[in-house]
Amino acid sequence: MPKLSRRRVAHEIVALLVAHPERQAELLKQTAAYLLHHKKANEAHLLLLDIAEELQKVQGVVTAEVRSAFGLTSASRDGIAAMLKKVTGAQTVELSETVEPELIGGVVIRTPEFELDASVKRQLNQLAGGIN
Amino acid sequence: MISVKELSTELLDAINQLKNEKGLEKSGIVTRVGDGVAWIYGLTDAGFNEVLQIETTDGKTVDAFALNLMEDEIGAVLLGADALVAAGARVRLSGQVVKVPVGPDLLGRVVDPLGRPLDGKGPIKAAHHGLVERGAPGVMDRKSVHEPLMTGLMAIDALVPIGRGQRELIIGDRQTGKTAIAVDTMINQARQKTGVVNIYVAIGQKLSKISRLVERLKSEGVMDQTIVIATSPADPASLQYLAPYAGTAMAEYFRDNKGHALIIYDDLTKHAVAYRQMSLLLRRPPGREAYPGDVFYLHSRLLERSAKLADHLGAGSLTALPVIETQAGDISAYVPTNVISITDGQIFLETNLFFQGIRPAISVGLSVSRVGGAAQTKAVKSVSGSIKLNLAQFRELAAFTQFSTDLDAATKATINRGQRLVELLKQPQYSPMSVWEQVAVLMPATQGTFDGVPVEKIADVTRALLAALWADHKEPMKELSKGGKPTEATSKLIMATAEKLAKGYEA
How many CB pairs below 8 A link A and B? Predict the structure, then answer.
């Protein structure tokens, strides 16, 4: 079996998933077998990130992980979604939210490709770095 | 009391501000890290040699630069400790390649390859920054080497002269005086007030050695016109790899601003070894002696940046003295042959000569200067013509010296002259000679004035000659130091003084 790049594999998986959504379970099994065969099981999470990126291109769906110190209001949520749509060109934004008080304030938004770290914690770290 | 509502409004404002996409950065993730190399997922836009910022567990950042750009991952070499970087750490693009502070603010300082001070004299407030990796001047931007760069070492200035903008390799085994030649050359620039700025790049050198060197430069009054870039064997290979390029960037500032700089890479063998380590860890295929395929380009692109610039660019120059350490005199190893072919000549140092007491231990037969002849000071050129020939003839006959009683007169004379010339070219460390001193010593020696003086008294007679000339004829000697061909009157003066003194020392 020729060795393919992870990006190429992700591209093929997404193409098949879009064309045959009913074969999702079978496809995942095949992918697992492929990863095990090539001793790449520990790269599964990277493959998932590549798949997410591909899906974003194909379906116009972007998944974003949002971490905030105090939780998001609906206005903030809409603002984030609007910004991500503009930047990535996606039609749909799926947010997964977590509350992390150690961020002190602000928000961290992560998509497979981009990151926006507008947390107070990072700004304090940058200030501390500047002093040192 | 913190109001959540207030924070929420602020956050919304912040998001509105960020709608112009500022602050949204492409980011990647460290998948593996170790031995100073991090493998990164994502960041498909990263450029070659681009600086990446890796977030550490304590929220600080460690810089790295991207060297392997592959379809699925990036191999980046860390510029800080790899212990601080963990798998899963976020990586951001900096949008720029490695830069270092450059300019006169760095003079007198000891810095690391990123321009961070190591001498405890406070931060460096440089107004300019230079690219560590930069192209060499083009054909039309250059001029042929024509001005001398005096080392103050008679054996070099007379036999293998170096010109400003030249790349002259210093090659030899360990403990043969390679660094000593480089240091003497730096000292001479200060003593003769040539205005040439020195940049000394220590690549993986013992810190004790660097510290001694800096102390010596300070005591000789050279440090004010010197920049020392120091890396020790304890530094990451990435810093050792960057050191010569960073040093060159600092030197280029002077070259490009109508100045003259001298850069010493001590040594490029260790540089190649550091690069080999990085390349092997980046899984690039090993070639001869396990060096990667581009080890020639590693040094050729570095040394090509040393040049004499054309008049329309200010006629500045950057002279390079790269150092290569050989193993048991083997100059046919991979890195030595590469650097020999890149440079414009080499000064070959031999262990036997060193232990015979011939110091600097320069092998006259194997040392060459391919472009320096055009740059040699007229004064020295006028007296050094026959030395090389005399020494070559002497070398051929040297084996017969023990049968001296059975030799014909001509052979005996050649051996005699050769022995005296070899003795004459010995020079103690940290005592570079000015132009007039070199001319005053070489002129009578090549004309046979010292042939009757016993070999062991050659040093005494030359010392006496220099003292006498300086005491009684200061003005003509000062004139001679300007570099012009000696006038007939000056020549007669030197010869008359030498003949008078030589008689007193003859056996």
Answer: 85
How far is Cα B269 from Cα B431, in angstroms, rounded to an integer? 28
The residue ranges of DSSP E strands in B161-307, in sequence order, are 169-172, 196-202, 226-230, 260-266
Residue B395: both structure tokens together: 């070398």
Least Cα distance to A110 among A67, A70, A52, A64 occurs for A64
Within B35-177, residue ranges assigned H as helices are 154-159
What's this model's pTM, rounded to 2 decimal places?
Answer: 0.88
For tokens 């980011």, what's the residue? B27
Q: What is the mean pLDDT of each run of 10 residues along chain B (507 residues)?
A: 62 58 77 92 91 86 93 93 89 92 96 95 93 96 96 95 96 96 97 96 96 96 97 95 98 97 97 97 95 96 97 97 96 96 96 94 92 90 88 84 76 90 94 95 93 94 95 92 92 94 88
Name the token pair of B368. 């060459």
Nearest-angstrom CA–CA distance, A120 and A124: 6
Q: CA torsion, points B129, B133, B139, B145, in degrees to nearest 10?
A: 70
Which of A9, A116, A132 should be substituted to probe chain B, the one whose Cβ sees the most B Cβ atoms within 10 Å? A116
Q: What are phi and psi of B167, to 5 degrees?
A: -115, 105
Q: What angle do CA B23, B28, B31 make, to 5 degrees?
A: 155
- B299: Cβ–Cβ under 8 A, 6 or more apart, which residues? B268, B271, B272, B322, B335, B338, B339, B342
Residue from the list A49, A79, A110 with its beta carbon closest to the beta carbon of B12: A79
CA dist B464 → B165, B237, B434, B468, B492 (Å): 36, 51, 16, 6, 17
Query: In angstroms, what separates the C-alpha of A52 from chain B's closest C-alpha?
Result: 12
Q: Tell me the sheet residues that pair with B65.
A: B51, B77
Length of chain A: 132
Q: Strand ranges (DSSP E) for B367-446?
A: 368-369
Q: Is B87 on the interface with A (CB under 8 A)?
A: no
pLDDT computed for residue B20 by the predictor: 46
Q: Kindly list the residues from chain B whose CB atom is less than 8 angstroms away from the CB atom of residue A43.
A: 31
A38 touches chain B (CB under 8 A): no
Name the residues of B annotated as catalytic: 370
B7 with A105: Cβ contact below 8 A: yes
Shortest Cα distance, chain B CAs vs residue A75, angstroms: 7
Residues 6+ apart with CB under 8 A from B312: none
B90 touches chain A (CB under 8 A): yes
B119 phi and psi angles, rounded to 5 deg:
-100, 5
DSSP B173: -
Beta strand extents in chain A (DSSP E only): 61-68, 92-99, 106-110, 114-119
What residues have CB less than 8 Å from B40, skipping those under 6 apart? B28, B29, B30, B31, B52, B66, B73, B74, B75, B76, B91
Residue recorded with tokens 């004299």: B121
